[in-house]
Amino acid sequence: MIYSQTVKICSIGESQVADEITDLIENQANPTIAPYAKTGEVHLRVTAKGTGRKECEDLILPVVRELERRFGKYIFAESDSVTLEEAVTVLLGQKNFTLSTAESCTGGAIAARIVNVPGASDVFMEGMVTYSNEAKKRTLGVTEDTLSDFGAVSEQCAKEMAEGGCVHAGTDICLSVTGIAGPGGGTPEKPVGTVFMGCSIRGMTRVREYHFTGNRARVREQTVAHGLAFLRECILGYTE
Question: pTM, whole model, 2 decimals?
Fold first, then answer.
């Protein structure tokens, strides 16, 4: 019998994951570890051969425990069926947090991923698509000074979007994203693929800058995946 278990990792890249498991890959026999890069995630499939499922599970367990030791909080699931948005939604419920999103370049795609999860209405309150500068000012309270001095795609704007989203929606957390998906709109200082994300949790705000590659759809896809990972990372960081 052949049986597999998948360990899913986010918030660190494929190359870093590969470096961390080089020794395990080089010395593997039964079970084996196969890494798979996904958008914003790395999956490690641990596969064992045995006479039955119980024997395979017994072979897999020590390897999974070693992966837990090495990757810790970066592991968001140990099942093939659990998605990142499901893990985030469960985490929000465990921490008793409510969530809103303030999206620009992703046009509501992060909110759409979250509401795919059954029971998301227990934690997800509102998704705001503030695509224009006017919408950012009117809905989220982004200041004219911020937009004129730094631009809509900036650390300052992402911060004000996240903080204003919490106020507008009355939530514990707001995740904001603003960026240049392309193909136009880029500059030497802010090329296409530049994205800023903000996460405000009960008055504490973190902002991170990302640089993605690919066409418009690919930049937006990466923004959504990394946005969910960033949200999970901020929740864990706040509660720790």
Answer: 0.96
